[in-house]
Input
Amino acid sequence: MSRKLAGRLVIATHNAGKLREMRELLEPYGVDAVSAGELGLPEPEETGEDFVSNALIKARAAAQGAHLPALADDSGLCVEALGGAPGVYSARWAGDAKDFGVAMARIEDEVKKSGSPSRRAHFVSALAVVWPDGEEFFVEGKVFGELTFPTRGMAGFGYDPCFTPDGHARSFGEMSAEEKHGIPADGSQALSHRARAFQLLAAKVFGTD
Output
């Protein structure tokens, strides 16, 4: 991958929490980031069967709609006791109201019903960059940990309060933005799934590789 990103970039999201994290990750690279929501672009139907496919669907739609390079994330929580659910349907479990409190309560209830003793889970983030001429690039990052019930913390967004990453005593919902997805200056692995995926992406499209 030799093509680099510079100048204006569309972040293909209408999710305020995701937009905030993406802008924080992009800040060191001097990119002028505008969201698909701010441009009034419609949200495409996410028909992919995996995270990469859905990220590409969103990035392609934004690149075509804005005539600019577009960056999209598709991410979710995969619960071992539920066979990987909610997975790519993580946002849909929150319903039209995007109520993740309801979604987390559903996970807790369904894990109990499953009878499985496992509380293992992992987050996945797929990032895709698409240029208006059709060139594409994607990466995927994961972070493993344990479900946390009762949920803890009000920081972050989505399923953060019900997930504690391996090696840590606090949930993502109890961590600061910098602690959760800050990219270590020494080049060591970031903590969150989105930051890990972004490290891989930045090495290719921002010239750090």
User: Anything to note?
Assistant: Residues 8-205 form a domain with the Maf protein fold (CATH 3.90.950.10). Helices lie at 16-26, 51-66, 100-114, 177-181, 193-205. The chain has one domain: 8-205. The first strand starts at residue 8 and ends at 11.
